[in-house]
Amino acid sequence: MNFETLRNKVIERVSLVAYTSMLRFVNRHPPVLWGLEREGNFLEAALCYTLYIDLKRCGIVKFVGKVGQRLGFKLTPRSVLHNVNKIRATLADWATEQILLGDQDAWDRAAANVTRPGKLKVSPCREVPEGDNVATF
């Protein structure tokens, strides 16, 4: 599998918009990666193989054996493991900018607009005004 194929497989799963957003973030906040040969797209390749390994639940040793030198630089399981961990940490920071958890009131307002199947119990952890549609999951 070459780099283009790897990138296309990742984009099929995460969407071009999400991929581009992650790539921009990783470029703005580059982690310290291991690699002797850092050709032009080394950082993007590390992002791609991290996402591929996670999305496909592929082991690192298996991935290195499958892809080998086809990305344009030498990969070893140890350097890939290091780089995957660094990219994951960087993407965790990216995710905090993407995902807004909100507070209880925001969740209640959002839940009011969701159609729920059947009868649901009212949450016992807080008092709920009569007629409020708070569900226990």
Write the layout of secondary structure elements.
Elements: H1 3-14, H2 16-28, H3 42-56, H4 60-67, H5 77-98, H6 104-111
Helix pairs in contact: 1-2, 1-3, 3-5
Q: How would you characterize the largest beta sheet?
A: none
* Strand percentage: under 5%
Number of strands: 0
Distance between the termini: 43 Å
Note the overall shape. Answer: elongated
Describe the structure.
- This protein is elongated.
- With 137 residues, it is an all-alpha fold.
- The chain folds into two domains: 3-98, no CATH class; 102-137, no CATH class.
- It contains six helices and no strands.
- The model has no long low-confidence stretch (mean pLDDT 85).
- It has helices spanning 3-14, 16-28, 42-56, 60-67, 77-98, 104-111.
- Helix 1 crosses helix 2 (16-28), helix 1 crosses helix 3 (42-56) and helix 3 crosses helix 5 (77-98).
Short description:
The chain folds into 2 domains: about 5-100, no CATH class; about 100-135, no CATH class. Helices cover about 55% and strands about 0% of the residues.
What keyword list fits this structure?
137 residues; 6 helices; mainly alpha; 2 domains
